[in-house]
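Predicting holo structure, S-adenosyl-L-homocysteine bound.
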Amino acid sequence: MTGRVTLVGGGPGDPELLTLRAVRALGEADVVLYDRLAPRSELERLAPNALLVDVGKRPGHHAVPQGRIEELMVDHALRGAHVVRLKGGDPYVFGRGSEEVLACRRAGVPVEVVPGVSSAIAVPASAGIPLTHRGLTHLFTVVSGHAPLTDDEHRHLAGLGGTIVVLMGVNTLPQLAAGLLRSGLSATTPVAVVERGFSTDQRTTVAELGDIVIAAGVAGVSSPAVIVVGEVVRLAQDGDADAVATLEQAGTLAGESP
Ligand code: SAH
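Done. Tokens:
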């Protein structure tokens, strides 16, 4: 009898941010294929009957190629297993979740998707940064910084005037900053780089757009990190000198927009 696949969004790393549905799926799993950024610390407890397979990248090791992950997922399910494919954040935010759903459908394997708490929203929040704030901005855009954006994209992003959230953007931060500055975004726009959200060594680096590349270099920021560009960064409450200094201004802003 054919089994099934449940694609589970594991949230940003803290097991407490798994959904109830995610916990139930893990509890019923025969096989768990998990990523580097998935919440792995409590897997043995949450999936006590499952074969746990690490398919993520670790420093010095190669990740299992995407095609091979899909093969493993489908093969186990065709042999009758309930396979949980556990991913970081939400499966449909830069997670290749839709490719994995298609692979299951092609193989005739029933597949269900459990949404997760995306790092795009939760990691800034963990540093005290809301992506919207009444009177300050009513929109946010989430982009992948895996490859540098085009000049058109920089122009459109700058023109929107909202919060910009970049995932996978540490390596392309210089191009992002230069592109947004060229597109007319003020050099004083605040930027935050939030590294390793929800871990014990989470860190937030805050600087103005004109200085962020140097600040990030000095701090030695590394992946995984979420980058936030926009006035909402001034609302951060996370202990950075810059962020704390701007809290007073946040109070004023909140007061101005009933
Ligand atoms: N599907 C995931 C994103 C996958 S892309 C989600 O919805 O969250 C991987 C990128 O997510 C990383 O390069 C980083 O930018 C971000 N990310 C995921 N978890 C993170 C964490 N705990 N702290 C900081 N950034 C994180």
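The domain at 120-256 is CATH 3.30.950.10 (Methyltransferase, Cobalt-precorrin-4 Transmethylase; Domain 2).
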